[in-house]
Amino acid sequence: MGKEDYVSTGGSLKLKGVMDGGIRKKKKKKPPTPDPASELKSRDASAGAASAHGLGERGEEEPEEEPEDPYAGKTEAERRFEERKRKRLDERLKKEGIKSHKERVEEFNKYLSNLSEHHDMPRIGPG
Known about the structure:
By secondary structure, the chain is mostly helical. It has a domain at 75-109. It has helices at residues 36-52, 76-96, 101-114. The protein starts with 35 loop residues before the first helix and ends in a 13-residue tail after the last helix. InterPro entries: FAM32A. Residues 1-91 are annotated as: Disordered. This is DUF1754-domain-containing protein.
């Protein structure tokens, strides 16, 4: 066996199916720069739209009277699930009532004091 059999070629491991093997980053696309004339037109259009949609002087939205539909964009099953979840929460709140944290802690302490202490080992032997 000659020295040629044990020569390492160096470089990275070549894998099948990989063209170059390197990581290629995607090039970022720059947005096209708008013309100054078209920019003025868009400003005028947005100012007109702002006044039509009930925006204030500074472009802030004023609150609308009609609330948005909470079920918009949900399937029938999702709507039923939300409805059941809300009903369960209402029932639980009615059952528990409105308790402060202090009242809950006192109730829990009473419950713990009434439990049998089965885990306590009686003393065996002297002392």
